Amino acid sequence: MLLRLYNPMSILSSSMFTQIPRQFYKCPLPLFTHSVQPHISTFPRHFTLSFYSNNAHTSNTEAPDDLQLHLSNSKQSPLKPGLYLVGTPIGNLEDITLRALRVLKSADVILSEDTRHSGKLLHYYNIKTPLLSYHKFNESQRAQVVLRKLQDGEIVALISDAGTPGISDPGMELAKLCADKNIPVVPIPGPSAVVTALSASGLPTNEFTFVGFLPKHSSSRRERLILSANESATQIFFIPPHKLCQFLEEAAAIFGKTRQCVMAREMTKVHEEFWHGTINEAKQAFLAHQPKGEITFLIEGKSISTEESPSESQLENELRELISEGHSLSMAVKLVASGKLMKRKAIYSLALRKFGGQVESEDD
User: Fold this and answer.
1) Does 3.40.50.150 match the CATH number of domain 195-299?
2) Contact (Cβ atoms closer than 8 angstroms) between residue 119 and residue 71
3) CA–CA dist 105, 239 (Å, integer)
4) Which of 43, 97, 40 is nearest to 71 (CA)?
5) Sequence-distant (≥ 6) Cβ neighbours of residue 358 within 8 angstroms
């Protein structure tokens, strides 16, 4: 805000509103754009003159000048060498922190999952740091190259296409390698599809399980879904759009058709959508048309039951079904026990009696 003492009558008759003195341009607040309007609060002798704009100050192709000024004049101490895991926007380019921009601008190199995709973000903020591809198909080959850069004292930033590196994206192995070599790994917090979807879902947020992408193999996928279905915490999945129908079919069979769920897609983008309903309603809604964009799917946790323990025949039927699907005896016991009040030892004892096998008992 710019404060000056003026005669109210003379200021109103002057022409200063049509031309702003050049020394005002460097004033950090407010932002000046194409048109400027005065706002006057009158006092007995003096008044406050503040300027505001009726235009959006953000361009679609270029970062605001005041941001560039902030980055160039930052009084923060220089970055230390190390690996910086930088969170980037999950859709809207404005969802990035000033610290993240400073790291990306100061780094010697930026490891990027997709250099073309990340190039748009860097261009928007006028960041010239060189990019080096780093994705799931080359991370093992790149690891030693990156390690040498870090050991030579370089600042290496790692970004993914969206969100936080290492969370269902490349980065976990590199972070582990650096930790083993005593190379600093510095997290730069930023957007997360998991927390963004959960916070707006309306489902319980006090406890949740992030599952991420499900296994490709059907039996492994079923095992994971059974474990999730028996947890009381909200379950969060990443689902590719072309696999949503398959997911809903399997989830309906394992979670039940009446469990509440939320489908979040295109978050922070123009076509952002949060769909609410039961799993069965989701089947009906999305089997007919496949939604576009990355999907974060949330399912409410299992309500804590005070029902009596299942009968021996019920347990036997569940064990038989899982074993017939190819699960080992121990895995079948684990899956059956995950949603029951009974101890695993008791179920394992039943499994040995009914189905035999020379398998050592497992402890809880």
Assistant:
1) no
2) no
3) 33
4) 97
5) none
| Least confident among 33-47, 123-137, 310-324 | 33-47
Beta strand 36-42 with 47-53 is: antiparallel
Distances (CA, A) of 342 to 179, 224, 317, 322, 349: 41, 20, 16, 18, 12
Cα separation, 285 vs 312, whole angstroms: 39
Q: pLDDT digits over 93-129, tens only?
A: 999 999 999 999 999 999 999 999 999 999 999 999 9
Phi-psi region of 256 (alpha: psi -120 to 50; beta: other; left: phi over 0): left
Q: Pick from 41, 63, 68, 67: which is nearest to 52 by CA?
A: 41
DSSP, collapsed to helix, strand or coil, labels residue 250 as helix
Report the DSSP beta bridge partners of residue 86: 188
DSSP string, 206-241: SSEEEEESPPSSHHHHHHHHHHHHT-SSEEEEEE-G
Convert the pLDDT of each residue in 125-149 to its tens digit: 999 999 999 998 998 889 999 999 9
CATH placement of domain 65-191: 3.40.1010.10
